[in-house]
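Q: Convert this sequence to structure tokens.
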Amino acid sequence: ELESAFPGVTVVAEPVAADGVILATKPAVAPDVLRAAARVGVGRVLSIAAGVPISTLEQAAGEGVPVVRSMPNTPALVGQGAAAMSPGAHAGPEDLDWARGVLGAVGTVVEVPEPSLDAVTGLSGSGPAYVFLVAEALVQAGVEAGLPRPTADALVRQTILGAARLLTESGEEPEALRAAVTSPGGTTA
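A:
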């Protein structure tokens, strides 16, 4: 499927030597997969395996291999992702530029110290689930208030999209935007 969807991509059963490797596995198997890749030759590593520390990745990659650990999120699937990255001990400016290029192709990228990646995981890594939960609740509230589900769904999707665009494009702080909708004694309040 991948080969037919992306011309030029080749799927292989075993690792092959590479200048750059994107480690996109479940965290539990990430070190083993990286060790297998390192045995055939790895120039540098960008890990999106949640919660796997740089020290573990560097040990698996081998001595001197540059490692960048990152935490992207699912809106990357539509080119609107948010990712944070942290360099390992051997990652230089060129390695960070490479990682920034990969992650930046599908959204915004920020650099943070590795201890901050746990906060990033909870904030932007898990954040889309919180927005989707709010969307679910709003749709259900609309249905319970008498709207047909398709109508409630359409209104909620556009409300969230519009609010996100307003937040992003207005330059206003979230608190100011919320206050502007919440007039004293009004329906929102």
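The two ends are 51 Å apart (CA to CA).
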